[in-house]
Amino acid sequence: VAAFLRDPSSGRVYRRGKLIGKGAFSHCYKLTDMSTSAVFALKVVPRRGAGHLCPGGKVEREITLHSCLRHRNIVAFHGHFADRDHVYMVLEYCSRQSLAHVLKARHTLTEPEVRYYLRGLVSGLRYLHQRHIVHRDLKPSNFFLNKNMEVKIGDLGLAARVGPGGHCHRVLCGTPNFQAPEVISRNGHSCQSDIWALGCIMYMVLTGTPPFMAAPLSEMYQNIRDGHYPEPAHLSPNARHLIARLLAPNPGERPSLDHLLEDDFFTQGFTPDRLPPHSCHSPPIFTIPLPLGRLFQKAGQLLLSQCRPPCEYITHYPCPHPQRYISRGKQFLCVLSLPRQRAGHRGVLEERPPLTSAAPCSGLPVQEVSQPLGYGVRIQNLAANESVSTEPEGSQKLEVEVAIRNLQLCLDAGPSAIRNPPGEQQPVIWALKWVDYSSKYGFGYQLSDGSSGVLLRDGTHMALRSPGGQVCYMPDRGKLETFTLRDVPRLLGTKLAVLRLFACHMQQQLRKEGAPPMPTLPARPSLCLLRFLASKQALLLLFNNGTVQVSLTGVQAHLVLSGEGEELLLTHWEQGHPGTSYSLGILRSHGCTLATRQLLHHALCML
Ligand SMILES: Nc1ncnc2c1ncn2[C@@H]1O[C@H](COP(=O)(O)OP(=O)(O)OP(=O)(O)O)[C@@H](O)[C@H]1O
Fold first, then answer.
1. Which of 130, 259, 350, 509 is most buried, taking the most CB atoms under 10 A from its CB?
2. 0.80 cut: is pTM over it?
3. Which residues are known binding-site members for ATP?
4. Residue 221 CB–ligand 1 contact under 6 Å
5. Omega before 310 within 30 of 0, i.e. cis
6. Which domains does the chain have, with CATH numbers?
7. 491 lines ligand 1 (CB under 6 A)
8. Is the C-beta atom of 99 inside 6 A of ligand 1?
C-alpha cells in the first residue's frame, strides 16, 4: 500500500501510517489527512480477493450499507476509493482498539463496565435494526473503542438488509460461537439473531469464555439449539437472568432492544457514564467502602457545578457533624449553601454566595467556616432569637405535624404491656439501607419495594423506581417529573449518576448481607424522603406520605409508622425476625411494650 494515497473524488491526499492490524480479508492502517491532520483508520481490501468491486459483492455491500450510517455507537464511515490493486475505506479511528483487546488483557469485566458497554451497543444496534440492517457478526473484536472509551460497532462486512419477513438469506455466516439457533438451522438471520449474539457476548465478557464452545462443532450446535450452556453461578442473579432472556432458543422470547435497558440488570445496578482508559488493562474501581471514594468525589464536584444557583435549605438536622457547629455551648442552626463555582474549585470563603434578604433567617448574626469540598457553611446563632421561625415557605411543617400526631396517637393508644400484642405481616414500604453522604452529595436510601432514592444537598429529590427503572425527579415540593432512564434530561445526568452510585453501593451491601428478595409492592412514583434526622441512638426518616421510620443505631431494630387515621400501622423489625405490624385498634386494646414506647418517644423528641 502506497505511503501517500489520493482520493480522486474529493481530491484529498492522505499519508498512510503504521499497520494497526490484519483481518481475514483486510489490513488496517492509521491514516492522516494531509490538509487537516485529521486521523482516520484505513481499511484496505485487496482487489484480487474479496475486494472485487462487483455489484452485490461483499465489499460493495459493506460500502453501500456502512456509508449511509451516522451514529455515535457505529464506527463512522468517512469515504472510500479504489486503485488498481486495492479498495480503501476511510473510517473513524478508534485508538483504543476493540473490546477483544480489552478482554485479552482483562479476561473478564465487572458488571458496571458490562452495563456501560451494552448501553452503547444496544443504542448502535437499535439504530441498525431501525434501518432493517442486521449485523450478523457481532463479537468483541468488532466493538471498537475510541480515545474516550466510547464503544462503536464496526466491521459491517457481513451486515445485510432484512427482507419483508424480517429475515435475510438463509446462509450460515458469522462466528460459530455466536450463531443463534435459527441461523444454524438455516432459518435465516433476523434482528433477534443479533440479540442472541449480545447474550453470548454478555456471558463471555462476564465469565471469560463464550457460553457455547464445545468441540466437535456438531455438539456445540446441539447445545445452541437447546440453549444449554454452563450456568454462570458466580454472576449476580440479575446478570444470569438477563443472559437467560437473551439466550432464549425461541427468537420471539428474546427481549427487544427497545426494552432491554429496562431489565433489572440495568435498572438495579450502577452504570458509569464513562470508563477510565486504564480499564483497558485493569478493573476500574467503582465501589469503595464509605466514603465512596474518588468516583463519588468526581460526581460530586460535577454535581456542585451543575446544581441550580445557590439554594439554601435548613438542616433541622441533616448536618453530618453537628459537634463541628456547636460553639461555646450555644445552640446553632446550620445553613448549608452551594456556592456558584466551577467543578474542582476548592476556595470557599472568597466564593461564598451573598446572603439574600429572602434567606430564611436573615438578620441573625452569621459566622462562617470553610469546608474542604468547597461549600460555604453559615452558622446562625439561634440563641440570639430562639423564637424565630425556621420554616421556609412551602416547608415540611405539615408532614412533621402529621407525623408527630401519629406518634402521639400510638403512645396514647394504650398502656404499656409486657410483650407486644399479636401482630400480622403486612407489605410495608420502608428503607432497608441508606448512605449518609449529605456532607457532600446527599442522603441515599434503598426501599423495601426495590426502588432507591436520594435527597440531594440542593433539596431536590430523585428516585429510581422498580420495576421498570422509571426516574422520578422532584425539583420542588409538589412538583414531580418522571422520565424513562433513556429520556432523563442531560442536566439531570449527574444527579442520576449520584443516585446510581448510591443504589449500586446499597444493593451490593444488601447482597453481601444476604437480604431476602424484595416483595413486589405497587409503585409509588411520588414517594420521597423529606428529611432524615440523626441522633446518637437512632436515625429517623420522614417520607412525604407521612411514613416515619426510626432505626436504632448499632442494633438491628426498626419501627415504621405508616398509613393514617384508623388505618395507622405500626411495624416493628428486630434482628432475625420478619416485620410484625400492629393496627391502631390492636394497640388500643393491648398496648405496646415499654421498649416500643421508648422508641416512639425518642422519635417524637427528635421531630
Ligand atoms: N476503525 C478502526 N480503528 C482502529 N482500529 C481498527 C479499526 N478497524 C479495524 N481496526 C483494527 O484493525 C485490525 C483489522 O481489522 P479488520 O476489521 O480488518 O479485521 P478483523 O475484524 O480483525 O477480522 P475479520 O475481518 O476477519 O473479522 C483489528 O485489529 C482491528 O482492531
1. 509
2. no
3. 43
4. no
5. no
6. 4-92 (3.30.200.20), 97-262 (1.10.510.10), 396-426+527-606 (3.30.1120.30), 430-523 (3.30.1120.30)
7. no
8. no
